[in-house]
Write a structure and sequence with these properties.
The chain has one domain: Orthogonal Bundle (Ribonucleotide Reductase, subunit A). It is mainly alpha-helical. Helix content is 72%, strand content 0%. The protein has helices at 19-30, 41-49, 52-75, 77-85, 89-115, 128-147, 151-182, 188-218, 221-244, 257-276, 283-288. The termini are far apart. Bound molecules: fe (ii) ion (2 copies). One fe (ii) ion binds at residues 72, 102, 166, 201, 204.
């Protein structure tokens, strides 16, 4: 199939005011940190001061992030393909930064593990619930886009990827890192990277929110499907939190399960509230949404 026109030499040019293009500009500025520049020497010293139970907690968290970043790196392409086929240039320009950043996140956690000498197989940290999400639900929702490019399939993929995996699971994971390590003032290299990651992810989640809002604005019934999907996924996040503590109520860093659960719940609620605002909004309004409205970190 050939093409019928070129966008950037037409009168339209590039839609510089659109949210995706503004996110692309932000990514060029803030998404260029290099995992290789982070110094893990203090982390290596701090690691030795942790109890073996604490090391176990952190290794589980890192190994879940490591596999999660690898999964989102490998699974994103079908979404980019759909956006490219639809000729949405500004969105695709942003998505080039998105994929690059996921690759860097994957590199980052591997550098942490290497520095800590954790070169053994860590897959036993992937519990049944974790495997269901990252080995089945996520890749299946993304792969479906290869054969089904309907707005419904796109909305489902973005709900799983951006709203749930990034917006709920990853955000809860950062919360655990901050509560465990940042509060104790240890492992500064790891926490520095987590800070960068969190900022990158705020753009990814903002894009997912924009995409879902665009789809909902075009086809309002999609909102109900997104709500249904999130309701279906929510219990997975709670089970994952419970499994992370192996049946205990408080982590080896003194973080209460109750607090982690409340954080996940808050994230789910926040995602849905933002999406509910898309109903009745015009497309023009959605393209004009400000970064701050979507929680993008500067
Ligand atoms: Fe990531
Ligand atoms: Fe991401």
């Amino acid at each position: 199939m050939g093409r019928t026109h070129i966008i950037t030499t037409s009168e339209r040019g590039i839609n510089e005011d659109s949210l995706p293009f503004r996110l692309y500009q932000k990514a060029k500025k803030f998404g260029v940190w290099d995992p290789k520049d982070i110094d893990f020497s203090k982390d290596v010293d701090d690691w030795q001061t942790l109890t073996s139970e604490q090391q176990h907690d952190i290794l589980r968290l890192i190994s879940q992030f490591q596999a999660g970043e690898e999964a989102v790196t490998l699974d994103l392409l079908p979404l980019i393909m759909v956006i490219a086929k639809e000729g949405r240039l500004e969105e695709e320009m942003f998505l080039t930064t998105f994929l690059f950043e996921e690759a860097k996140h994957t590199e980052f956690f591997r550098l942490v593990l290497n520095a800590l000498g954790a070169n053994h197989d860590l897959s036993h940290f992937h519990s049944d619930t974790y495997k269901e999400i990252f080995y089945e639900i996520l890749p299946e929702a993304m792969e479906r886009l290869v054969t089904d490019q309907s707005p419904e399939a796109l909305a489902e993929a973005s709900t799983v990827y951006n709203m749930f995996v990034e917006g709920v699971l990853a955000e809860t994971g950062y919360f655990s890192f901050y509560e465990s390590l940042d509060k104790a003032g240890i492992m500064p290299g790891l926490m520095k990277g987590i800070g960068y990651l969190k900022r990158d992810e705020s753009r990814h989640i903002a894009y997912g929110t924009f995409l879902l809002q665009r789809l909902i604005s075009e086809k309002p019934h999609i909102y109900d499907r997104v709500v249904q999907k999130m309701e279906e996924l929510a219990p997975y996040s709670f089970r994952l939190n419970q499994e992370g503590l192996s049946g205990k109520e408080v982590s080896n860093f003194g973080v209460a399960l109750e607090d982690t659960m409340a954080f996940s719940q808050k994230q789910i609620k926040a995602r849905m509230e933002v999406l509910s605002k898309a109903r009745g909004k015009s497309l023009a309004e959605i393209y004009k949404t400000s970064e701050s409205e979507l929680g993008v970190q500067a």
